[in-house]
Design goal:
The chain has 5 helices and 3 strands. By secondary structure, it is mainly alpha-helical. Helix 2 packs parallel to helix 3.
Length: 112
């Protein structure tokens, strides 16, 4: 939760609005009911992790409004395997914690 609040504060500083989901299931529910420009998806969450949630979003089988929404992986793991797993699941970008606001800004500009 603390990491999510930090990311939301960074996004606000960059001029963006944001919503927070505590797990992948809640994220999918939000994406089914509201239009977003991008998702910053934590890899490790309770109930449904970021990899599983991304696969569900990308499947197009659910009620997500935009299965092609840009998804940015966010994780404390800097291991190459996690990056590969994230990209294979359908995430567009990969960032490690602690979050680098300059890099986040660059990624958001690139996908806009």
């Amino acid at each position: 939760m603390l990491n999510a609040q930090v990311v939301m504060a960074f996004l606000k500083r960059l001029g963006h609005t944001s919503s927070m989901a505590g797990n992948g299931k809640v994220a999918i529910d939000l994406l089914a009911n509201e239009k977003f420009d991008a998702v910053i998806m934590d890899i490790e969450m309770p109930e449904m992790d970021g990899i599983e949630a991304t696969r569900a979003i990308r499947s197009g089988n659910g009620s997500v409004l935009d299965p092609n929404i840009p998804i940015i992986a966010l994780t404390a793991h800097a291991l190459k395997d996690y990056k590969q797993l994230s990209l294979e699941a359908g995430m567009n970008e990969y960032m490690t914690k602690p979050i680098d606001i300059k890099r986040l800004s660059e990624i958001l500009e690139a996908i806009a």
